[in-house]
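so my prof wants the structure for this chain in the tokens format not the other one, which i didnt know existed until like an hour ago. anyway here's the sequence
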Amino acid sequence: MPATTTPRITVLPKIQPKVERPKLYKVILVNDDFTPREFVTRVLQGEFRMTEDQAHKVMITAHKLGACVVAVFTRDVAETKADRATDAGRAKGYPLLFTTEPEE
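here's what i got, hopefully its the right format
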């Protein structure tokens, strides 16, 4: 009788994918001298879910320093919120501006 050979099975090690946290982006409120403070406060409350006190503090900080970080999100969320807040100002005819930049 001929000898039978059994096939060899090679077991490969499991590859663990490297999972990185998504990069974060800052949403920045840029001060201007034309948009009413009350309007900026309402936009901060509506879009960024701030209390009236928090929104007022952010608005005053941007007024004094020229710009202020409002919040930090993943890129898509940050850009969407910045665009929506800026569009709210444009809809009323104000030069309200929110920008985004990577957090370092």
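also thought this was worth mentioning. The first strand starts at residue 24 and ends at 30.
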